[in-house]
Amino acid sequence: MNLWIQLKMHGVHVPHHKNTAAMPAVIMDCPKSVTIPMSMHIGTPARPLVKVGEYVKMGQRIAEADGFVSSPVHASISGTVKKIDSFLASNGRRIPAITIESDGLMARCESLEPPVYHNQQEFLQTLTDSGIVGLGGAGFPTSVKLTVKNMAKIDAVIVNGAECEPYITSDTRTMLDQSRLVMEGARILQHQLKAPKILFAIEDNKPECIALFEKLCAAEDAMEVCSLPSMYPQGGEKVLIYHTMGRLVPEGKLPIDVGAIVINVTTLASIARYLEHGLPLVRKCITVDGSAVKEPKNVVAPIGASLADVFAFCGGFKAEPKKVLYGGPMMGIAVPDLSEPILKNTNAILAFAEDEATPPKTTACIRCGRCIGHCPLRLMPAEVEDAYAAGDVEKLAALKVNLCMECGCCSYICPAHRPLVQTNRLAKAKVAAYLREQKQKEAAAK
Fold it and tell me: Is residue 285 a known part of a binding site?
């Protein structure tokens, strides 16, 4: 069934580069060590439970959630805790992390078994214990996302299989190789959330996935496939809700406020796997690709494995990598060091040779308005750039820069190659700092 809305949100058409779409995921060899950050999710970092010198087994909880919006962390290999220290992450922040030296056995923690739950509250606690977070990139703790006070507000659960970023095919392989787990996860959520319907949102550049899930949904109650045109950023939460349900998420509101819950397809499969086997989130399917990679493939890697180890498993490099990214070329983050680890929400690592890594020369804005015309949320990046350069925080707030989802459409479409999305990020931070300062002044005045 095609529920494409006639008046669509805007975006851009990018080259797909889905080079690994036909490659089933391969399980990576056990690395010699892993470095597992305590913050791989939105919210408070997890609190370590182990000590240096302690022996741990795969699946053992090594850090506990420290607050409601947090997530526990589990050992992805068996071995000895060698270090508990902070490391400089690619986002510039120092994050506490636990380094485990492997014993080569990948011995599983004996206490792991399929969880038992009898009601929704116990189900949500089970999800918290699993360490599962949003695996599409955001990393929001899944148990928190699914904590809905009034379940009657839910009109649909949207399973996000759009995977609109170029190069990335890990979700595609989840849909093709783990369709049983995806469907089981959908049934579980449908029951626990009392959702009237499940919508599988898949871009039309994945005809195999669409055909498979149309066949699977035909045997289910209130489950259907939404075949959506291939457009970036089709997988953005607000874009997806509009293009499947025809509903706009208002400023300052959440998807549940318009009757929707959006969950990534790999997150859904991970929920079903945990409930079936009891093994928490300790490994992740990622796409390894880019012009510098010798053997692009989809890899199942332990959380905390270094990028260097993952690239080595893919044959290393055929050209010197001039730029390495966590994620895709549109929203990915540049990685300064190959010692950086695979995170829970890493869905790809890309390495590009010099000819693709060198950015084009930036020239003056020609006031063409393309950035405005292609922004999914109809923001005005060129105006934001001017206001930011002028230090006009009030104008930045009036331009609603905080609504920016940082999809990168503006930078991609700009003929002058202006770094618009980067400016938007800086502008958002400036507005946030200004609002904090205003609150402090108001509090002090009382």
Answer: no
